[in-house]
Description:
The complex is a heterodimer. Chain A contains 16 helices and four strands. Chain A is globular. By secondary structure, chain A is mainly alpha-helical. The relative contact order of chain A is 0.14. Chain B has 22 helices and 18 strands. By secondary structure, chain B is of the alpha+beta class. Chain B has helices at 7-32, 35-44, 86-93, 97-108, 126-136, 158-161, 169-177, 193-197, 199-203, 240-249, 286-296, 305-308, 318-329, 356-362, 365-376, 384-400, 423-428, 444-447, 461-472, 509-522, 579-593, 598-609; strands spanning 45-50, 57-58, 64-76, 118-124, 142-151, 164-166, 188-190, 207-213, 219-226, 234-236, 255-261, 266-273, 476-478, 483-486, 499-501, 536-542, 550-557, 564-570.
Amino acid sequence: MENRTKNIIGKVDVPLLVLFLALVIAGLLTVYSASYSEESPQIYSLDKAYGKQLVWIIISLLIGVLILTLEGSFIRNSAYIVYGVVTIMLLIVLFMPAIKGAHSWFKIGGFTIQPSEFAKFATSLAIAHFLSTTGVKIQETKTKLIVFFLIAVPGFFILQQPDPGTLLVFFSFIFVMYREGLSGNILLGMFFALIIGVMAIFFKASEANVNIFSWVFEANYLYLFVIVLASVLIHFGITYLVMPRYRGKKYITNIIGASMALLLVFSCNYAYDNVFKDRHRDRFEVMFGLKLDRKGVGYNSYQALSAIGSGGSAGKGYFKGTLSNDKYKHVPEQSTDFIFCSWAEEWGFLGSFLLIILYTAFLIRIIMVAERQKSKFTRIFGYCAASILFFHYMINIAMVIGLAPVIGIPLPFFSKGGSAILGFSIMIFIFLRMDSERKDVLR
Amino acid sequence: MDAFQHRRWIIILTMLIVTLVFGVRLLYIQVLNNDWKNRAEQITHHKVTIHPARGLLYDRNGELLVAVNQVYDILVTPKDVKDIDTAQLCSLFGISKTEFLQKIEYASTGYNVSYKASTFIESMSKEEYSRVVPYLNSFNGFDSKRRTNRGYPSGIAAHVLGYVRKISAEQYSKDQKVGEKYYNQNDYVGITGLEKVYEKELRGERGSAFFLRDYAGNDKTNLEENYAISGQNLYTSIDINLQAYGERLMKNKLGSIVAIEPSTGEILSLISAPSFDPNKLSGREFSENYKELLNNDTLKPIINRPIYNANYRPGSIFKLVQALIAMQEGVIMQSTGFACNKSLINCHNHEHPLNVQIAIKHSCNPYFYQVYKRLIQRGEQSSIFKDSRLGIEKWNAAVKSFGLGVKLNTDIPGVKAGRIPDANYYDNEFPSKSNPYGKYRWAFSTIYSNSIGEGEIGVSPLQMANLAAIIANRGYYYTPHLVKKIGKDGSKRPEYLKKNYTMAAAKYFGPVINAMEMVVENGTARNAQVDSIIVCGKTGTVQNETFNDHSVFIAFAPKENPQIAIAVYVEYGTWGGIWAAKIASLMIEKYLAKELSENGKNKEKQVLDAIILDKHSDFK
């Protein structure tokens, strides 16, 4: 037994483990600084956020070591069971008393557990298991539907909590699907749809008017016209210049594409007027820089950017922050969603750049490790982990540095929260365990 | 190996692009652009001004004249005023609903803004405040601030001390444009009196502190502190007992008393009657009280008469100056006599003015008519017009050396020069600027009234007291001043340590002083006698067309080694020998003997009972 444990630890991917531990330790230190209180200065003070975070990290690492002792096949075979258990937890949690207006937590003693954090690795396990099953082909509609179903069930329950931020993360599985052979056009289409949609909302929110030959009309109508013109030009450009052999064949596709773009713009306009609430509209206006509202909706963003900017190139030094910590509290949620501010303020541009490099290296290492697998299950699971972490990283940082509207998504390993650190750790350790036996197993 | 493994590069590329965008954005907001750093500073930094304690004022014996009271201002932040019981608030502060709305309006306009606290109720006493404070928390947007206020324990010397007030908009903008840019909009400054003249010494130097504040605006960390320097205390020359006594004597009268220590020029008391309690101009009722003092009181208590009323003609007292100048210029000698020729100018019956001393004792008008004639028309020119021009210029210079007709550089604001006429004055200004006499159109016969202190001469009570000090000193004076020491170990302003010599030599003062002694002993000022002290004095009666004459008296005492020189003006007090002389002698006795004799007590009773004028007197 001892020999076997040693054997496993010897095969664990060291760069990935080191990057993971570096993020976890940096995260803990940042939580410590961000929520430091003079009454309980020790990092292990259990009544403080950092004490609890430390306990959760220790629990996570212990569970991680436990996972390393499991058989790979046992993990694979338990995938649906874990998925089922977590999904049931997601159902039950809806009947728990609301905390901060959401039914997202089980309260046990002084600790709270958030099952939606576990849903991330549970759903990954289920998708990896399903897609690696012999005979399952991603090009088939049935496969797509089943994957959609696997995501939609926990997603639906999460939306009921309500926790739209976490739900957003479930869209990250599109990267996994893409890697496994989903048509790139779908991803490209979604990308275009995002660009077109964001621009549509921008024109709508800006309420800009265009004056052409003394004919005044709203800018978003001109935008519609530009889209139609662009699709016509692209169509003729592709059909006659780039790929003459497709001539005639892609007519229908292009017309559908252009129509869908128009439909999207209309939907965005409609949603902006009729579905969005004022607070949503305000968030978009703040994000587009149409409004620098430092007291109202723009408050979070304004304070966060001030804190980050004040860090300068080299930062104020650890524990020397003056905006994003518990003493001054100028940045709201400084130890959860906005924890990046604390890091960026204390370590400056050097620190914040180092952090995004570290994060990116971590993500790329996961992909590299995933790509070296013979086991399709392990590879898909690795991609699931990378995609989920990437989504968190992308949306959280973009929000904090004012490139996206304020969406409540934590920064993995940094934001305070026990279930999150546990969930992400389990995900990474499962992946490390699966990787460590890549030479022993074929699938 | 599968067909889609190249797609890893697309995904990795996406990640790298996102990170690149983040990196560029972070580089911009953290390194390249300073906007967010400045905004962060606005959020975190809080500058606090530390106001130094204003200096106190003491009398010459260390008694407190101006003290400091703890008062409380009620502040309001209009933006935060929500859900309050207005009726309850109004009754708590004893104001009407209209006043309440006005105060809120005031706190949101001008240089007050609605999200900052402004004064709602000013200067509540400790007692008033302790009644209000238990309820203050129940009104959102209301707060209180402790502050110090000027307090006047003895309630005297209002004109000397002046008052302190919040800086006016005009003064503030003047300070910003051409001044030293020291003041802030809510600072208090000295407006009149010593508070104004010694403003810089009294105010001290403001300090400041930088704090880091938290999200709720609490100061958490002190980054930097420049300590405030307290204002310096002023040790004035005022004798608190003499000042209070003089003010008491001048009750129900209109006029001035100025008492000077001749050997130093220090002003022992400076009284302007009617006076008022300086506490009236400190605190919440300032506006009402000020309006009352300024407009509603026909006696104009706000005027500082001893320095401001410089158009009093000196009357017979001026004969002292004429005698001294004439002897110095050699136009008469001590033993020169003139006939009391009533055809020249009216006079009363008295012994023959055999010499200067007797002439002064009896205040002989024809005698000084002839003295003045010799001063003005010296016979140096054949034309009396040209001769008079030369004469008056010499005479003018000599008189001015006595501090008359010039602004005494004292430390009281608003000092006036008075007037000693010269050739130019009669050429161009008299009897009116539009129709003056003109050059060579006037001579001694035109201006002879000056000889007996009437005519075109104007002097202030301060100048008269200084004249008494000059005679006591036999020919020199220190510019009268009110501050002995600036700061506990400080000194007075250097200009007050310099002797100013008159053009009359010391030897000519003997006969004048002897005459003044006789005036009190058995002349016109017997009322000014003090048991056991030799008082030298001279009465004056300033003719007044509209009402009773003004009663004037100057004196110094004791004759040897004089301690006090005094001038008393009792307006409309008729003849100088009566009220002015009595009051002056009481002041002298009080100052030198401390206790009044039996005689003095009787005199005191007469003076206190005398109502020369009160507010309801019907006079113009």
